[in-house]
Amino acid sequence: xxxxxxTTPEQPPVRxxxxxxxxxxxxxxxxxxxxxxxxxxxxAGARARAGAAPWLLLAPCLGVLLLxxxxxxxxxxxxxxQTFGQSQLWGFQAPEFTGFDNFAGILGDGEFWAVVVxxxxxxxxxxxxxxxxxxxxxxxxxxxSRWVRTLVNIALVASWGMPVLVAITIFKWMxxxxxxxxxxxxxxxxxxxLIGHNWFxxxxxxxxxxxxxxxxxxxxxxxxxxxxxLTQVPKELEEAARLDGAGAWxxxxxxxxxxxxxxxxxxxxxxxxxxxxxxxxVFVMRGGHPEAEFQLLTTYAYDRAFVVNDxxxxxxxxxxxxxxxxxxxxxxxxxxxxxxxxx
Length: 343
What we know:
The structure is a single chain. By secondary structure, the chain is an all-alpha fold. It is built from 14 helices and two strands. The chain has helices at about 5, 40-80, 85-90, 100-105, 110-140, 145-160, 165-175, 180-185, 205-230, 235-245, 250-275, 280-285, 295-305, 310-340; strands at about 80-85, 95. About 20% of the residues are buried.
């Protein structure tokens, strides 16, 4: 037997396509079984599995959210359309369906609108201060040495991680009328005498102190996030802007801000949601009984529900607050979609 006969594998017989008649150019072509044949519904099944995969991955998280938030939210909506007080709470009377009477009574109350205006002004001032100070701290960190930046980050994380009650206690001591360190320091200035000054004697001054407390706790997150975003700004664009004659403000306005716009929009939206939901800072700072001049939407709903024992009106106020926050979220989503279209 020759070497060719021992090394050359035996070729399988060629299957000719009957549709080609076995002749011409089609003769001699081999057909692999199953090649070029698509099973019915194979593509649709693959697309269905690919579309269901994200929902399967999100199912545990969605289940926990429904378990934790589903019942309270359902109960909140139910109470807002009922008459529910102490008699209903202890089972002496059955709750009665009242339709939109609770909402009509709240929306027709001038005190409620005063609380809404106060809450909006408080949140707006806190958000503006938080964003401005956070941006200044983030820009400062880009211009200092590495060890100074490390110390600043440690201080930011430490203040951010401080429990709210501890921060409230510190601010109460700082602004105390008799033993407050702020009054003592300011009184050292020429012509200033604030010894014994009560910062909470009026609503505007007291809310300004509470606003500083909220801003102090929110600046670290904003500064750290914006600092991370500044590292992604291309240095080439900044140098090109300087070569074109732009100063520091021009570079910041025309280069830095457009690149950081998605982050700024996200942080501003989150800050609005957080600052409109402020509760422990006001509640604890005023000893658990906020005066009328200190009432925000959260404390106002709490007082109606647990002080006046009108749970239905408290639920209606909370539900109105939820809708206001949903409006803020809708504005945020619209801005993000616009940014995505531009990019």
